[in-house]
Each structure stands twice: as structure tokens, then as C-alpha cells.
Design goal:
There is one protein chain. The chain is an alpha/beta fold. It folds into two domains: about 200 residues, Cytidine Deaminase, domain 2, CATH 3.40.140.10; about 90 residues, no CATH class. Helices cover about 50% and strands about 15% of the residues. Strand 2 and strand 3 form a beta hairpin. Helix 8 packs antiparallel against helix 9. The protein is elongated, with a radius of gyration of 28 Å. About 20% of the residues are buried.
């Protein structure tokens, strides 16, 4: 999923933003939540200096009702009111993106794509911040930043994800989202406070974190493999849709050829009899109506999910092998 080229932007998070996002997402688990990111963009750097959560459906004024449009309107009104209040107290209120919580890479779906597309349509540098608690055990950093690539934005703007459109756009399956590097910024006062609180947090001497040497990796790998299998099944269903379309297209072409051959024979017979022959309008004939081609967007997103799962398995397995080799060396040294 992430592009191997140099990232177009860098996301710089204020320490307070990290704490607020983690607190909101962690307290809502296992439910998923979203929120707004505020700050400013300076050159290639997007500085996120503040954030606030979006109300859940159960908390929303318009939530729980049958009218989703009214709920969306109340949500937009809530955002505007929050930014107005922040502006009144002289806090950054410029929107630079949004955040959401998820497990692994399950955020790669059409609803997320549509939301991020709308953000980038109005704010070119808008970013998506993803909180994944499962990554804490794997990498220690549960936050990742993404944005849609320019190639995918152009293709999504056209709204046509046929085989011909995807091939003409020359869009690699790994270039839907672009992962951006994250930097966390602390003020000097915050850093001094953390150093002052370090003895009270019962941290080991030298800041050693022996939890990183934990060898119990089965749950993480099993879940990743399970998600990969599910994606493979979903991709097979998308492939079946395409095969069904191709079979219907071939049958339609055969029926068209037989129909035209029949009309050609009838026309020749009428000419032999000296009868007048009029050209037939085939536009209203159901045999000549094109069969709608299935969208390839879902298959493209599933392929991105599978690639992301494989990258996470590869990274986590590499760390696990390093731990096992270290443990083997320690055991051999002790003997």
C-alpha cells in the first residue's frame, strides 16, 4: 500500500494531539470513532496542533433516527460550532484532516475512500490519521498517516473503474493510499514534565522495555492470516463477477451475430422479390444494449488490503525471528 517513492508531505503532531487521539480511540474500543484534525500546512509539512472528536451516533442529536441526512446535517453543524468556539479562545481551527480508529488495515474501504476524497477535494493537503491498537505490540507506534495519491484522485474523480479505465490510468494496485512519515513534537515544558515524572512511572533503569522481548506472537499472526484468507475469498467473488460479465458479453455477441445474419438473409430474400427494404433501428433492441461492466474499485481496495497485511506480517515476522535468534544465543551462552 505505501509507495516506495519519497513522500510528498510530512505530518508533524503536537504531543497533546497524540494524547487526545489515543484517549478518544482507546476509551471507545471495541467501537470505532472518528474526529477532526486542526492545524496548518507549511510547505511540505502538515502541522497538527489540535483535534476534537466527532459525536457518536448514540450521542449525536440526529443519531438513532431514521433520517440519516438530518444526522449528517447535525454533525456538520457540530463541527462548525466546535471550530467557532476554538476560534473564540484563540486556538487553531483550520481543518487539516481527520482521524479514525481501526484494526489492522480494515480502514481501506469505499466509505473511507469517499470521505478522504472529499477532504482532499476541498483541502489539498488533508491527511488521514489512523489509530490501530494492534500495532502497539508489533511496532510500538499505533498511529499512521495517509493520503490518497494524485493518480487515484484523478481516477476516482472520473468515477469509472472499468478494466479499460484502470489500465489506461496505469495505476499500480499499491498506489491508492500514500503513507506519510509522522513526527511528534513536544514543547520544552512538556519534555521537562515527562523527565520529572519518569521516576514516578516506575520505569526500569536506563529506560529498558523488556516487554518488547515477548515471544508470544501467535495471536497477531493468526489474525493477520485470517484477514488474508477473508480478503482472498472477497477477491475471488470479485473475480467471479468479472467472469460472469465476460460470459454474458460473449453470449450477447453471439446472439447479435445470429440476429444480424438472420436479418441479412431476410433482406437478401426481399431484394430478390423486388420488395423495398428499410434499415432497421437496433438502438431499442435489448440485444444491442451494452451490459454494464462491474466496478473494479472493490477489487483494487481488496488488493491494497492484502498487500498491507502481507507487509505487516513480513515486518512482524522479522522482529519475531530476531527475538528468537537472540533467545537462542542467550540460551547457548548460558549453557
Amino acid at each position: 500500500m505505501p509507495s516506495t517513492a519519497e513522500p510528498s508531505m510530512v505530518v508533524e503532531l503536537d504531543g497533546l494531539v497524540v494524547l487526545k487521539v489515543l484517549n478518544h480511540c482507546q476509551s471507545a474500543l471495541p467501537s470505532f470513532v472518528t474526529g477532526q484534525l486542526l492545524g496548518m500546512d507549511i510547505g511540505r509539512t502538515v502541522e497538527v496542533t489540535n483535534c476534537f472528536p466527532f459525536p457518536g451516533k448514540s450521542e449525536d442529536v440526529g443519531g438513532g433516527g431514521a433520517d440519516d441526512a438530518a444526522g449528517d446535517g447535525d454533525g456538520a453543524e457540530y463541527q462548525m460550532e466546535m471550530m467557532r468556539c476554538l476560534r473564540d479562545v484563540n486556538v487553531d481551527n483550520n481543518t487539516v484532516g481527520w482521524y479514525q480508529s481501526t484494526y489492522f488495515s480494515s480502514f481501506i474501504e469505499e466509505s473511507c475512500i469517499e470521505t478522504q476524497f472529499n477532504y482532499q477535494q476541498h483541502i489539498k493537503t488533508a491527511v488521514l490519521l489512523v489509530y490501530d491498537p494492534a500495532r502497539t505490540r508489533a511496532t510500538g507506534m499505533p498511529l499512521r498517516a495517509f493520503r490518497l495519491t494524485d493518480h487515484f484522485m484523478a481516477l476516482y474523480r472520473e468515477g469509472k473503474f472499468t478494466l479499460q479505465a484502470v489500465a489506461a490510468a496505469n495505476l499500480p494496485r499499491s498506489e491508492v493510499f500514500e503513507e506519510l512519515p509522522l513526527k511528534v513534537r513536544h514543547s520544552h515544558l512538556s519534555s521537562a514534565l515527562l523527565l520529572d515524572l519518569q521516576p514516578e512511572c516506575n520505569l526500569p533503569a536506563g529506560g529498558a522495555d523488556f516487554a518488547r522481548l515477548e515471544l508470544h506472537t501467535n495471536p497477531f499472526l493468526e489474525k493477520q492470516m485470517q484477514l488474508l484468507i477473508e480478503c482472498t475469498d472477497d477477491l475471488q467473488q470479485e473475480s467471479s463477477k468479472l467472469q460472469h460479465y465476460e460470459r454474458n458479453t460473449q453470449r450477447q455477441k453471439a446472439a447479435q451475430a445470429a440476429y444480424l445474419q438472420k436479418k441479412k438473409a431476410e433482406k437478401a430474400a426481399k431484394l430478390l422479390k423486388g420488395e423495398e427494404v428499410a434499415d432497421e433501428d437496433t438502438s431499442s433492441n435489448p440485444l444491442f444494449k451494452p451490459i454494464p461492466q462491474p466496478s473494479r474499485l472493490e477489487a483494487l481496495l481488496i488488493a491494497n488490503q492484502m498487500q498491507s497485511y502481507c507487509q505487516q506480517i513480513n515486518a512482524f515476522s522479522g522482529q519475531s525471528f530476531a527475538k528468537l535468534f537472540l533467545l537462542q544465543s542467550l540460551n547457548s551462552g548460558a549453557q
